[in-house]
């Protein structure tokens, strides 16, 4: 597929999406967000792909936010449309049935922080800095930053960072649980790939069931305990379950087919 603002590549069953607007610090305009959504869908429906990385081009930024120049003259109705349509892409990432990891290579501000938070895991380089600086612009986050930051780091710290607009350095993000790991820039992609390769050795349908079950905890129209019972029981119908248990009892490594 042809994209203008992102680069895509796939090797060893990993699909990498690189936001590619370096002169704008990878700011997320409408088109870029839509392209990320299309690329995630492309990877999700490709049977050869087992995991997805989202990262930014260059040394400086993962994504320095929504593109301020794009919405500077918006009215409320236009802002609502931007927020709803972008929000759909972020929710699709969160609900992707294959693991999505943000490899955060620099600034992840505003929409960039929200994009990273929509991913299942976040691995940051030591120079990464997170933040929701919207109040500096007379705004609040519009891609669910108030919700996902609260889910990840808790209400008190989320309110602090949302109200002060302070940036969160990588090590502090690790302490807060906002990121899963901090590594040197040189090893950011290899570490992220290694994590996805480890997950790729597990049963794909079980991984999808984990994602649905954990997401269900935060879905107010669902009972997460019921979701888990349903997902758990469904696993018993899969070939992967038979393979996993047979391999364990036969003292050999399981080879999962994702069916
Ligand atoms: N939207 C649009 N353009 C952006 C942008 C954004 N969110 N973030 C950076 N840019 C552009 C700058 O306007 C500049 O473009 P120019 O060279 O045409 O003037 C270019 O990217 C480089 O940014 P610059 O500000 O010169 O880099 P810096 O190193 O001095 O500062 C930041 C880096 C991230 C601290 C600073 O760019 C910044 O605060 N960005 C906005 C962050 C933000 O508020 N995001 C939330 C938006 S809702």
Structure commentary:
With 259 residues, the chain is an alpha/beta fold. The chain has a domain of 180 residues: Alpha-Beta Complex (2-enoyl-CoA Hydratase, Chain A, domain 1), CATH 3.90.226. 47% of the residues lie in helices and 16% in strands. It has 11 helices and 10 strands. The strands form 2 sheets. Strands 1-2-3-5-7-10 form a 6-stranded mixed sheet, sandwiched between helices. It has a 4-stranded mixed sheet with strand order 4-6-8-9. A hairpin with a 2-residue loop joins β1 and β2. The chain is globular, with a radius of gyration of 19 Å. The model has no long low-confidence stretch (mean pLDDT 97). The structure holds coenzyme A.
Structural descriptors:
11 helices; four-stranded mixed beta sheet; 2-enoyl-CoA Hydratase, Chain A, domain 1; six-stranded mixed beta sheet; 47% helix; binds coenzyme A; 259 residues; alpha/beta
Amount of beta strand:
15-25%
Beta-strand segment tally? 10
CATH topology of the domain at 6-185: 2-enoyl-CoA Hydratase, Chain A, domain 1
Strand pairing plus helix content: what structural class?
alpha/beta
Provide a count of the helices: 11
What Rg, in angstroms, do the CA atoms define?
Answer: 19 Å
Terminal CA distance: 27 Å
Percent in helix: 40-55%
CATH class (first level) name of the domain at 6-185: Alpha Beta
Small molecules bound in the structure, each named once: coenzyme A
List SSEs in N-to-C order: EEHEEHHEEHEEHHEHEHHHH
Return the CATH architecture of the domain at 6-185: Alpha-Beta Complex
> Mean pLDDT, rounded to whole units?
97
